[in-house]
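Structure first, sequence second, as always.
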């Protein structure tokens, strides 16, 4: 499992213009089961994606198609982790 932390590197008006395409990108990968959760950081400096992928390389390939990446609007930090415990109801996140 991976935590993807996006940090905006462009003005918010440029980010806002790309949000519809970014949401379509997210929806595509929710449909495949790759993305498990996502949302904006507070304060609004970027976002977080919780992802399940076979490898970091495979995930980075997916992320390269994100309009935020293609338009150079965000930097991506990818951190792999192995969940060992969850809140009741989230057991599906365990390896």
């Amino acid at each position: 499992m991976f935590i993807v932390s996006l940090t905006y590197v462009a003005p918010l008006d440029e980010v806002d213009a790309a949000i519809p395409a970014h949401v379509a990108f997210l929806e595509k990968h929710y449909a495949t089961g790759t993305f498990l959760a996502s949302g904006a950081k507070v304060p609004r400096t970027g976002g977080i994606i919780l992802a399940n992928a076979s490898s970091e390389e495979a995930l980075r390939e997916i992320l390269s198609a994100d309009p935020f990446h293609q338009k150079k609007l965000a930097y991506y930090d990818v951190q792999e982790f192995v969940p060992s415990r969850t809140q009741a109801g989230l057991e599906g996140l365990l390896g």
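Margin note: The mean pLDDT is 95.
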